[in-house]
Amino acid sequence: MPELWELSVEEIAGRVRAREVTASEVLESCLARTARVEPLVSAYLEIFEDEARERAAAIDRRLAAGEDPGPLAGVPVALKDNLSLEGHALTCASRILTGYVAPFTATAVERLLAAGAVPVGRNNMDEFAMGSSCENSAYQRTRNPWDLGTVPGGSSGGPAAAVAAGSVPLSFGSDTGGSIRQPAALCGVVGVKPTYGRVSRYGLVAFASSTDQIGPIARNVRDSALALEVIAGADPHDATCAAEPVGSYLAAIEQDIAGLKVGVIREIDPAALSPAAARNWRQSLDRLEAGGADLVEVSLPSLDAAIAVYYVIATSEASANLARFDGVRYGRRAEGADNLIDLYFDSRSEGFGAEVKRRIMLGTFALSSGYYEAYYGRARGVLERMRRELATAFEKADVVVTPTTPTAAFRLGEKVDDPLAMYLSDIFTTPASLAGLPTVAVPSGSDDDGLPLSLQIMGRPFAEATVFQVSRAFEREVGWSVAPAFLGAAEGAGAG
Amino acid sequence: MRVLGGGLSEAAKLTPIGVRVCVPIQPELNFYLKVMALTHDDVRKIATLARLRFTPEEELRLTGQLAKIVDYIDQLQAYEIAEPDLGSLGVMEAEDRPEPCLPRERFLANAPASLDGFLLVPEVKGGGDA
């Protein structure tokens, strides 16, 4: 008999709605699990147990009164610390937002609450979502539950580690260039970056507004599909949020994929992958074929330029978006400045961490007079080229697959002094961000050290249902079940 | 003019939009396409634009790191480009009508300093010597 924290999102909601267990019992199981794993993993910046208990009790009262709290009834969820929940601190893991309290709730979070979910805490992240290892948090290092000496990935490292460690069955992150998919891959869980415009960005702190999307992280594909269904859909508060109907992502998710065309990008060089990742990549293609899919070759000649394009576009947008943090309207204000200009300089210089400053600098450079055409203009041009290449690929293929990352989780500290090396781990995730395509990262096995590897499945705009269907078929072939191993550290006697 | 290789950019712009293959120009030509390395002075100027201050040690380290990143990004000069199609950006048309916004007191609750319903800041004149 599994413990309640081990259940899937669907099982929890199903059993709570059927009144076989209470939301409070589920929450207590997750909180007990969290108390055991959190000292090892450090996935949270804050856990609000009391408030979560009140919410769970309220859900139980509604059930007792004959009401249906919704499709996520009693499901404990964790939120990346760039998603607004009214009345709660929101820091983006940055010192510049010390003391900031969200004055409203993000649309996606409102929808979670309306569906019966129970937020339990704020997850750690790379500062302002800038990073691929969670090491850029101003507050703490989060560790990968599979090997505590390795990074959980980033920037949504906290949300991914929390789900992998069994603290919650579902969490939410944001993905700008891979920030949901890469940590999901490194932590052996499923991560979803929806189509640009599928989920409202209202209440998400902006990093690069042309690619930012909120998405779920869960232990299996069905749970992540259900979660996206809840948060997706039009929102008058976000002009870039699409009116496109959402539909049911679970309706056809179990259909087999016989005859579906899976595009394999010709330019992926297996030599650029770690040996284990290269073996796993070939094996993943075999599994898709075994599942009935037809593999077709597609071409993305600009793949090698993706990182360069992304780091120009994203930092340019970030340099503008982060101009609002100046010590005047909210957040941390530097002491002692006796004029406004110095207040800006001091507050920003003291408040931002090294990577955020680096990216603001790079973006300011790319947009500056004399360099704009050579950097921002050119990046936009290559991006357009890449979009067209992908559009052509999707004329031949229903989905396009790549490895999610070139390697499994790397060691803590390994890339921290080499920003460029860190950026290069985003090679496969950035194209879908730049093109706005729906993409799911699905566990695909593990390397020789038992660290998870992952397959990335991209679809046409708003074809989430197809991407989930292929992801689910692949998951069935892999037979992956998440069992956080806590390698390298004793989890404690009697660990379940 | 520090940006070289303008001729090739022009050539790239003339490429018919229907051509979907993006051909990296041969590596040996990269010499001509190189944008000059980022200098210490550049970094200082950008920092002023970005309203950031660095210690001399930070500035030195940052110059090295940014130079390496910009060097990497310079590979973009070798790729053919397509003109952005603004209709393809997927931006939705939202109805333009006024809506109530955040009440002033809730907004000001996060302000570092306020007075009588306004944000309080130090004197506007002076400063700026980064």
Verbal overview:
The complex is a heterodimer of chains A (496) and B (130). In chain A, 38% of the residues lie in helices and 12% in strands. Chain A is of the alpha/beta class and 496 residues long. Among the domains of chain A are: 4-256, Amidase signature (AS) enzymes (Alpha-Beta Complex); 304-381, no CATH class. Chain A has an 11-stranded mixed β-sheet, with helices on both faces. In chain A, strand 2, helix 4 (107-114) and strand 3 form a beta-alpha-beta unit. Chain B is mainly α. Chain B has a domain at 1-84: Histone, subunit A (Orthogonal Bundle). In chain B, 35% of the residues lie in helices and 3% in strands. Chain B has helices at 6-14, 30-33, 40-49, 56-73, 104-108, and strands at residues 114-115, 118-119. Chain B is flat. Chain B starts with 5 loop residues before the first helix and ends in an 11-residue tail after the last strand. Chains A and B meet through helix 9, helix 10, helix 11, helix 12 and helix 13 of A and helix 1, helix 3 and helix 4 of B.
